Amino acid sequence: MALFIVLWLVNSSKPVREAVAGYFKDPTSSGKESGSSTSGNGKVMDISKTTSMEDIKKKLEEAMKKMPELQKLKNQIEMTITPEGLRIEMLETEKGVFFESGSPHPSKYGVEILDLLAKEIGTLPNRLLIEGHTDSRPYLSSTGYSNWELSSDRANQARNIMQENGIRVDQVSEVRGYADQKLRKPNSSTDASNRRISVTVKYLEVPPAPEKKPDEKSEKPGEKGGEKPHPMPAAAPPEAKKH
């Protein structure tokens, strides 16, 4: 058994080895830094979620460095590891960088960064959440088109471009439009950086193990050794009284 465990650990990935080592160092640990943790819906998070998100972040940063045109926009692209996953935000400027002003149509730079993200993230098993946000300036339109439609349309355009360039059809789990309801800078609601597209690479979740079905051959209550209990003899009917 010891030899089997050693062989298994030698052939396991680094995150798994670190998780096992962490357990033996502190068996009572809740597993926040290494090991698994349980989410609110009862599913078990990926054992290497922190490490893997750091790796994805570094990989995307390295890919951007290889594209000089995108490198000059590095201050407009913010990556943050959150409880939900790796959040990649494309922050706008007053002139508009990734989308044309007041339009759901992406600019040249918007298409290029979404194309890059799709090629890198499309190789991962992780699912994605795509969100669109605006600032609090009212969208002036005689057709009733508002910031709600604009944020939703931009998020959906981002999804469409990414799926055309590497993201699997089933990889996007949600597309949301928030208008100005989740401002990046609440104290400066008209700041241009409130206008943004957010792509979140979500943590992997492993479905819980199926419940074991009862063994059909197991003993039933009242049975011993698989033998059926002997039936109790029926009580004799009472004798008829003589008159």
Can you tag this structure with a few keywords?
two-stranded antiparallel sheet; 60s Ribosomal Protein L30, Chain: A; 5-stranded mixed sheet; 6 helices; alpha+beta
List the helices and strands and how they pair.
Blueprint: H1 2-10, H2 14-25, E1 44-45, H3 49-65, H4 68-71, E2 77-82, E3 85-91, H5 108-121, E4 128-133, H6 147-164, E5 172-177, E6 196-202, E7 205-206
Parallel strand pairs: 4-5
Antiparallel strand pairs: 1-7, 2-3, 3-6, 4-6
Helix pairs in contact: 3-5, 5-6
General description of the model:
- With 243 residues, this protein is an alpha+beta fold.
- It folds into 2 domains: 1-35, no CATH class; 36-206, OmpA-like domain (60s Ribosomal Protein L30, Chain: A, 2-Layer Sandwich), CATH 3.30.1330.
- It is 30% helix and 15% strand.
- It has 6 helices and 7 strands.
- The strands form 2 sheets. A 5-stranded mixed β-sheet has the order 2-3-6-4-5. Strands 1-7 form a two-stranded antiparallel ribbon.
- A hairpin with a 2-residue loop joins strand 2 and strand 3 (85-91).
- Helix 3 (49-65) crosses helix 5 (108-121) and helix 5 (108-121) crosses helix 6 (147-164).
- The protein is elongated, with a radius of gyration of 29 Å.
